[in-house]
Amino acid sequence: MIRKYRYGEPFETEAVTMEIGEEQGVPAYGEIDRADGFSFSYRMEPEDIVYGLGEANRGLNKRGFCYVSDCTDIPDHTEDQQSLYGAHNFIVISGRQCFGLFFDYPARMVFDIGYTDMERLTVSCERAELDLYVIEGKNAYDIVKQFRRLIGRSYIPPRFAFGFGQSRWGYKTMEDFRRVAEGYRKNGLPIDMLYMDIDYMQDYKDFTVQEENFPDFPAFVQEMREQGIRLIPIIDAGVKVEAGYSVYEEGVRQGYFCKREDGSDFVAAVWPGDTHFPDVLNREARQWFGDQYRFLTEQGIEGFWNDMNEPAIFYSSEGMEELKTVLRGYMEDTKEIPLWDLGAMVEGRANNPEDYKRFYHRVDGKRIRHDQVHNLYGYYMTRAADEAFRRIDPDRRFLLFSRSSYIGMHRYGGIWTGDNRSWWSHLLLNLKMLPSLNMCGFLYVGADLGGFGSDATRDLVLRWLALGVFTPLMRNHAALGTREQEAYQFGDTGDFRSILETRYRLLPYLYSEYMKAALQDDLYFKPLAFVYPEDGFAAGVEDQLMLGDEIMIAPVYMQNAGGRYVYLPEDMLFVRFQKDGRLSQELLTRGHHYVEVALNEVPLFIRKGRCIPLVKAARCVEELDTEHMECIGFPGASYTLYEDDGLHRDYENPKNYRSLTIQ
Ligand code: GLC
Asked: How many Cβ atoms sit within 10 Å of the Cβ of residue 571?
């Protein structure tokens, strides 16, 4: 049962696709206060669990912290960060009373979930202009499924996107890419994608390719394809201000960029220096920006990652002027500038909330100040691309994911969770975030495996890849200047090979479970409590997840640990994928166990009475032999496999399902 309450005249975010009539009166749960902006408040019982918030910091149970929905370019995902890149305003309160809340509000919103007062949930925002959806159901899982139906089917990538991808900020030339491809191919390491970071462009200009480094780009795309590798370029939100650059000139001429109050184009400095932001909230501008992707699709490109689309601002022209004024003041008044002040002043220019009040969108003839719709920018940039792909080739799937997002964007693309670090704590954060992302519709998700910032260690990369085996987006990505962390950089590549091969051996199963989750508005990753609602212990487990209907995963996330403790809510088959394709299988009974997992192993647990299909590994997804499958699991069990051509949209065909039985 879903009820919709409207306050004021909200901006139409198009997060929700289902028609729901407006309810009169007040929600059955909590209290609403509109004296000063908007706030919803509810007294939580001690045993209540709060799920949701998608891409957010901390645990699966969101209690005990204050989260702020305010899409931010935030490279430091430390425990105290309240905002990350996405804004996913859906929560479920699960306890004696069980209900879900979706606050469809595209500006800054605060979720105080037992932070100010441990017992109180308060959700507040500055303007009482929003739609509030209240969802009732049997339990948290049922509520989540209803919510997912409300917001429409999740994005479905092409099947190759379930292969492994390597990325690094700093690959510049064809030679750099060839070297990486060779590092993988020569060592027999499977790979499907190489990601192109900003260096492939000419001076960081979107929809350009650096000609000296890529003299014949389509031929290079083809050369990589012949090795079973697809090139996936990045696109940034800001369009470089530069006379003679056609995207810039056309955007200015047509008035497609975000404008200041005085009507001039707003200038923000990002990687290319000064840029303008395409007004992707405006239908025409969105179509125009989306059509620019053709420049690359026409050269054979089949996928993209959209970045810097919070949108990130290093500084604005106004911000720089203000800084100069302050500095001049110092020079005139005092002899020395305190260094700490200087540091904070310069840093404070980046992603400054004042800048988000300095530009406007034009939507259906109305002018809207950016800060009032801030959280929609990455969503609409990604929507621009997807809508264009549907014009370019309506039946074909493209790979697409974004850094910033809002609920609704899950229909157009996936997300990666931004600039994490090579820290063990970020491996755990990655794990805990996965079901929350799924609850908010984001199924095609993954983190920078091995960590983006800081130097990775061999053991961290191995353990993180062993989690990445299960995430739909499996990409190793690292920042410029950090230690190289490709799978062949740490000696004995055999350890890496067996982990990457495990991904490919499981791929038909993982793809099948992804497709079922997408087609049935279900979760790919679930908290244990969703599957075992009666099991009091399962409710508190945050470092193990259910994947699909057959398996449970429990990655090792601590350095120097030779294994870990696991809790089994029922008897399960403990499977370890070992070096050189060996499999170890052991029946474990319900309860607590310590399991040993070597650095080069991938552990998983098959639920009682179930089985999963396995294939032989191959160098890329297209070369997997799915005619010859083996099943592992419990005797007599059968599995319904979903399979399609992986490239088109023929999802509803009953021929896509076949039943496999364990021999
Ligand atoms: C941002 C992205 C990161 C990318 C870098 C350079 O920090 O999050 O993935 O490598 O920009 O483009």
From this structure: 15
Q: Distance between CA atoms of 62 and 83, rounded to whole angstroms?
A: 13
Strand partners, 69: 109
Classify strands 448-449 and 414-416 as parallel, antiparallel or unpaired.
unpaired
Amino acid code (one letter) for 513: E
Which protein residue has the closest C-alpha to ligand 1 atom 7?
Answer: 419
For residue 440, is it left (φ>0), alpha (ψ between -120 and 50) or beta? alpha
Closest CA to 48 of 88, 101, 86: 101
Give the closest residue (by CA) to ligand 1 atom 5: 169
CA of 176 to the centre of ligand 1 (A): 18
- In this structure, the residues whose C-beta lies within 6 A of any atom of ligand 1 are 169, 197-198, 234, 307, 403, 418-419, 477
Express each pLDDT in 54-74 by its tens digit.
Answer: 999 999 999 999 999 999 999
| Other C-beta atoms lying within 10 Å of the C-beta of residue 37 | 12
With b for 16 or more beta-carbon neighbours within 10 A and e for fewer, the 288-318 pattern comes to: bbbbbbeebbebbbbbbbbbbbbbbbbbbbb
Q: For a substitution probing ligand 1, which of 234, 306, 417 has the most ligand atoms within 8 Å of its CB?
A: 234
Q: How far is the CA of 451 from the centre of ligand 1 (A)?
A: 12
- Ligand 1 centre to CA of 291 (Å) is 23
> Tens of pLDDT along 1-52?
999 999 999 999 999 999 999 999 999 999 999 999 999 999 999 999 999 9
